[in-house]
TrEMBL record:
This is Transglycosylase. Gene3D superfamilies: 1.10.530.10. Belongs to the transglycosylase Slt family. Residues 1-19 form the signal peptide. Pfam families: SLT (PF01464). Keywords: Signal. It comes from Parahalioglobus pacificus. InterPro entries: Lysozyme-like_dom_sf (IPR023346), Transglycosylase_SLT_dom_1 (IPR008258). Residues 77-170 form the Transglycosylase SLT domain. It comes from the Bacteria.
Amino acid sequence: MRAAALIGLLIALAAPASAQPDEAEREALRSFLESTISGADSFTDRYDAEVWLVDMSSRLARFVDDPQQRLQLLRQIHAAATAAELPPELVLAVIEVESHFDRFAVSRVGAQGMMQVMPFWKDEIGRPDDNLTDNLTNLEYGCRILQFYLQREKGRLHPALARYNGSYGRRTYSDKVYRAWRDHWRTEPLAWLE
């Protein structure tokens, strides 16, 4: 599938069924998608960037209405996940379970942002002024914390996710992440078995 076809697909997916975007909207979205793809430096191939961004954008539409915001967020998620050597689809599943893509989410225990990062982490790494509701900051923290726990658990997803959530020894949380990944974000297999 060529870039123009992918852009056309994204535009079609972006519009509500009852209304087609006007030409100016389509052109703005086309331009934004092209710039997002060219700036998606966490991808090794432009075609892979096009396919992944369009595919994930259609999946993310149920949580984020604006197509430009979706593409920007997906690019940020892909970059943070790739930098932390995590599958971006796993990070998308974690975010779905943690916050349903609400950057201002705060849990009952004080975890903040899309990946529900506990504020004590800011002091742990000596950056007390960081804003955990800033997507880039939150994604960087969340992905690195998950990377740490995956390394600690030697790649075993269930215990690493339980540590991330603070529920080590139980699978309730990791099973939720698994279901979100399986039902909404899966593109290729992950080693979910222990």
